[in-house]
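Hi R.,

Here are the chain sequences for the assembly we discussed:
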Amino acid sequence: MNICVIGTGYVGLVSGVCFSDKGHYVTCVDIDKEKINNLKNEIIPIYEPGLKELLKKNKDEGRLQFTSNLSDGIAGAEVVLIAVGTPAREDGEADLQYIKAVARSIGENLTDYKVIVTKSTVPVGTGQMIKEIISNTAGHSHFDIASNPEFLREGSAIKDTFQMERAIFGVESERAERILKKLHEPFQTKIVVTNVETAEMTKYAANAFLATKISFINEVANLCEASGADVEKVAEGMGYDHRIGKAFLQAGIGYGGSCFPKDTQALLKIGEKAGYSLKIVPAVESVNKEQRLRLINKLRCAFGKEGLKGKRVAVLGLAFKPNTDDMRAAPSVDLIPLLEREGVEVICYDPVATSKAKEVIESLQSTSTLYGAVKDAEAILILTDWQEFKDMNLEQVKLELKRPIIIDGRNLFDPLKMRDIGFYYDSIGRSVVK
Ligand code: NAD
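And here is the predicted structure of the full complex:
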């Protein structure tokens, strides 16, 4: 099939590349000319494992092209996928300015029948808004709208697309349903067909539920700390129950990233507008906000009366999770300035996110190696569970440090092993070892 993907960010680019790899002919459109020129030269704007190679393969084989001209992009496409950003506005509501702009451009260039599919995460009712904008601009209604929310995760986005666990089709016609089924045929996935509004809601409900799981286990972790239990074992014991499941029961410093924080907020606004006030989601948010701050308290406890002022602390991990360079709503963005305000000298290391981090944390001091960051530091703060950190040589790290203190926001190590090596080790939901 000929398809057009509008927006070449984490979702649009990965989807475009993966659909082309399955044999579809894909044109990716972005308003950002520099991004498009780079993509034409196989320079990828994001870090996503395997993406560069797959992009090159499909481009070379003639199934994938890039343009900043939407009119060229949608000409000849049977399906148009909208994958532009829907960031949070200041009041938490989803900002639909990019969606509206795309809808207008599609309307201006719509000459033959197409299915216009929204992959972006959008509030309930946005599909109808898109339909109205397109038909008003085009002056006709020879098109169908559909909602096909995206569930890929950054860091494993290609695998998540190739092995998608389900596809949700929010449709208004059998024709659109047939076309979406044909588009997804190569993925052999479970398909849920519903109306547009239900598909839009499904995405928010899924993300809010995952965020709830994270905040829930973090609350349990905090209770474990207060009562001498071990959250890792609690989570293991809970996770074997198939009704609960193991995924998303890793206690830590809470969720960040471009989706959960903004989508939980947007869901609250959807509730407000619909006249229903959600009760669980605000609690999830409040636990999450506090969770990352607990790390600073742990650091304070480690230094006791000496206080934090003047201490040199190595922060390991800037991105909100491993295998990505996405810095949106990463805990590091809050924590590093807070530490600096307390007079801490912070030196950071992240395997891939440092340059993007510098765009959002002005004062950031960094090194290009893990061992460079820990050298002469008086404590380590672990914020991201990169494999490189799990694999670090703890004996060598101890030698490099001025003081053997590790505050681990991701529970990477066994506390008893850490005690044997001689660390002061505090993690989440487990006893401190000294
Ligand atoms: P992003 O910010 O990485 O990319 C958006 C792209 O859209 C940018 O390249 C931007 O230049 C382009 N764009 C903006 N306006 C445009 C226009 N008028 N015409 C053409 N291109 C335009 O966003 P993202 O992270 O890929 O997210 C996209 C959507 O998918 C959001 O709604 C998000 O909530 C949702 N989503 C994201 C993820 C994720 O992990 N990032 C996962 C699932 C769903």
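The first helix runs from residue 10 to 21. The mean pLDDT is 97.

Let me know if anything looks off.

Best,
T.
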